[in-house]
């Protein structure tokens, strides 16, 4: 079993709800969902948490044994990778369509892996357990668990059962409390290992001019500017359709774990290559996990003015959601730009671990509201009363008020930017949580005194006479 995060793979034939379940477990919309078979081709990785236990979920393309379709074969190859690296397999079937021949073929195939398999009957809303599961006992995986991935029905029972043997997630602070953990991520051959070697002043990790040199996450401790650091060199993550070697398949999971353990992530891109979808996905995952992020554009020294302008344009065009992340143009080989890069690493660490006092946050909230009050909703003014900190790494600020659920998205973004500027939260994807206080009188009936009842009756009588 993986010593950091259990890996749970979702498999089944097309259109049984694997991507819907993936989105439900991870709390994201990362997996495309539509009522079309074969929509998912690649593997999709995501983090999930249930009752203090964290795990990695892998969504796969629908398995269509012996279909003869070339795209289906590629999707099946990706699913094979997920099965090899999984600690537990969720085999999804469809309660509406019942047991099909494809389900039976998949059931036989899964036995080859000799891994724990839980049979999950999806789309079981409105059915009793016996109605939903009776048709699937012959698949040979014991008693099935009925769920509704769309509505979330049955998921707590399912997760408790499959996670019962997994330990609670070990605390990520394996180093000293004041050690800054920095993960270096990016596509293959962008210079991650070269960057680490330059910072260390020695050839500590293997660096070569070919993709795939680094296969595992390698942690190296060193001191910089009087602070303890742990640099984590990760394997380059290629587009999943190109991941074929077994060792490289597992290195992807190691990279995800490195991101989870880090305080600060340096995302390295190649200035001499186009910024692709895989770069954006990887950085989006870092932002989703709430890790402080720095973008380093490497191999800058080999570009002329026109190429530099082109590289800068591509960064701003394709990564607009990283406007909060410090941007550095560096040469890992020559060492240019590295002192400023490491200064931002320390600033980002201070930001993600910062403790903010409630009076200070409330004053900052009042200043922001005074400068730009929230827009009224249906003629009613939204009042934001006070704020306090809800956590760090990433920093979470909880804002209390009335009608906070009606705050416009642009105003929430404005508040986040104000907090980030006032508290110097560099490189941090600040999380704001809004809470509306309940009206203590909303369900309380106003009991009238006998005198008030008589007065009300007299007023009603006069009103009736007036309109006769």
TrEMBL record:
<feature type="binding site">
    <location>
        <begin position="122"/>
        <end position="125"/>
    </location>
    <ligand>
        <name>GTP 1</name>
    </ligand>
</feature>
<keyword id="KW-0690">Ribosome biogenesis</keyword>
<dbReference type="InterPro" id="IPR005225">
    <property type="entry name" value="Small_GTP-bd"/>
</dbReference>
<keyword id="KW-0677">Repeat</keyword>
<feature type="domain" description="EngA-type G">
    <location>
        <begin position="180"/>
        <end position="353"/>
    </location>
</feature>
<dbReference type="GO" id="GO:0042254">
    <property type="term" value="P:ribosome biogenesis"/>
</dbReference>
<dbReference type="InterPro" id="IPR006073">
    <property type="entry name" value="GTP-bd"/>
</dbReference>
<dbReference type="InterPro" id="IPR015946">
    <property type="entry name" value="KH_dom-like_a/b"/>
</dbReference>
<dbReference type="Pfam" id="PF14714">
    <property type="entry name" value="KH_dom-like"/>
</dbReference>
<dbReference type="GO" id="GO:0005525">
    <property type="term" value="F:GTP binding"/>
</dbReference>
<feature type="binding site">
    <location>
        <begin position="59"/>
        <end position="63"/>
    </location>
    <ligand>
        <name>GTP 1</name>
    </ligand>
</feature>
<comment type="function">
    <text>GTPase that plays an essential role in the late steps of ribosome biogenesis.</text>
</comment>
<dbReference type="InterPro" id="IPR032859">
    <property type="entry name" value="KH_dom-like"/>
</dbReference>
<feature type="domain" description="EngA-type G">
    <location>
        <begin position="6"/>
        <end position="170"/>
    </location>
</feature>
<feature type="binding site">
    <location>
        <begin position="233"/>
        <end position="237"/>
    </location>
    <ligand>
        <name>GTP 2</name>
    </ligand>
</feature>
<keyword id="KW-0342">GTP-binding</keyword>
<dbReference type="GO" id="GO:0043022">
    <property type="term" value="F:ribosome binding"/>
</dbReference>
<dbReference type="InterPro" id="IPR031166">
    <property type="entry name" value="G_ENGA"/>
</dbReference>
<comment type="subunit">
    <text>Associates with the 50S ribosomal subunit.</text>
</comment>
<dbReference type="Pfam" id="PF01926">
    <property type="entry name" value="MMR_HSR1"/>
</dbReference>
<dbReference type="InterPro" id="IPR027417">
    <property type="entry name" value="P-loop_NTPase"/>
</dbReference>
<feature type="binding site">
    <location>
        <begin position="298"/>
        <end position="301"/>
    </location>
    <ligand>
        <name>GTP 2</name>
    </ligand>
</feature>
<keyword id="KW-0547">Nucleotide-binding</keyword>
<feature type="binding site">
    <location>
        <begin position="186"/>
        <end position="193"/>
    </location>
    <ligand>
        <name>GTP 2</name>
    </ligand>
</feature>
<feature type="compositionally biased region" description="Basic residues">
    <location>
        <begin position="452"/>
        <end position="468"/>
    </location>
</feature>
<feature type="region of interest" description="Disordered">
    <location>
        <begin position="439"/>
        <end position="468"/>
    </location>
</feature>
<comment type="similarity">
    <text>Belongs to the TRAFAC class TrmE-Era-EngA-EngB-Septin-like GTPase superfamily. EngA (Der) GTPase family.</text>
</comment>
<protein>
    <recommendedName>
        <fullName>GTPase Der</fullName>
    </recommendedName>
</protein>
<dbReference type="InterPro" id="IPR016484">
    <property type="entry name" value="GTPase_Der"/>
</dbReference>
<feature type="binding site">
    <location>
        <begin position="12"/>
        <end position="19"/>
    </location>
    <ligand>
        <name>GTP 1</name>
    </ligand>
</feature>
């Amino acid at each position: 079993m993986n010593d950091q995060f259990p890996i749970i793979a979702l498999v089944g034939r097309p259109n049984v709800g694997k991507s819907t379940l993936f989105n439900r477990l991870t709390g994201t919309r990362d997996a495309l969902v539509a009522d079309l078979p074969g929509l998912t081709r690649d593997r999709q990785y995501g983090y999930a948490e249930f009752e203090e236990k964290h795990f990695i979920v892998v969504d796969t393309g629908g398995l269509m044994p012996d279909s003869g379709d070339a795209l289906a074969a590629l999707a099946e190859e990706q699913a094979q990778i997920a099965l090899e690296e999984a600690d537990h397999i969720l085999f999804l079937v469809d309660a509406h369509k019942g047991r099909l021949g494809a389900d039976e073929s998949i059931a036989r195939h899964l036995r080859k892996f000799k891994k724990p398999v839980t049979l999950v009957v999806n789309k079981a809303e409105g059915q009793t357990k016996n109605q939903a599961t009776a048709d699937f006992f012959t698949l040979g995986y014991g008693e099935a668990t009925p769920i509704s991935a769309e509505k979330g029905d049955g998921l707590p029972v399912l997760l408790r059962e499959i996670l019962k043997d997994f330990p609670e997630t070990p605390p990520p602070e394996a180093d000293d409390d004041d050690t800054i953990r920095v993960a270096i991520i990016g596509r293959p051959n962008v210079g991650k290992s070269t960057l680490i070697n330059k910072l260390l002043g020695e050839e500590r990790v293997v660096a070569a001019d070919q993709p795939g040199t680094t296969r595992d996450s390698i942690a190296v401790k060193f001191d910089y500017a009087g602070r303890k650091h742990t640099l984590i060199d990760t394997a380059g993550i290629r587009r999943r359709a190109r991941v074929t070697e077994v060792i490289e398949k597992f290195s992807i999971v190691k990279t995800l774990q490195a991101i989870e353990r880090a305080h600060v992530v340096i995302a390295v891109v190649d200035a001499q290559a186009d910024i692709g979808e895989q770069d954006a996905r990887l950085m989006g995952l870092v932002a989703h996990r709430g890790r402080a992020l720095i973008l380093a554009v490497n191999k800058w020294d080999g570009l002329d003015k026109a190429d530099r302008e082109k590289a800068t344009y591509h960064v701003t065009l394709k990564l607009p959601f990283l406007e909060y992340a410090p941007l550095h143009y560096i040469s890992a080989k020559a060492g240019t730009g590295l002192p400023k890069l490491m200064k931002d690493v320390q600033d980002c660490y201070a930001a993600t671990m910062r403790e903010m006092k409630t009076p200070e946050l409330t004053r900052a909230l009042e200043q922001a509201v005074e400068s730009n009050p929230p827009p009224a909703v249906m003629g009613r003014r939204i009042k934001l009363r006070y704020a306090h900190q809800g956590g760090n790494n990433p920093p979470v600020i909880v804002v209390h008020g009335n009608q906070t659920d009606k705050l416009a998205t642009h105003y929430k973004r404005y508040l986040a930017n104000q907090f980030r500027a006032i508290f110097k939260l560099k490189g941090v994807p600040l999380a704001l949580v809004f809470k509306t206080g309940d009206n203590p009188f909303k369900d309380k009936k106003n009991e009238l005194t006998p005198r008030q009842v008589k007065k009300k009756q007299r007023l009603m009588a006069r009103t009736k006479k007036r309109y006769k």
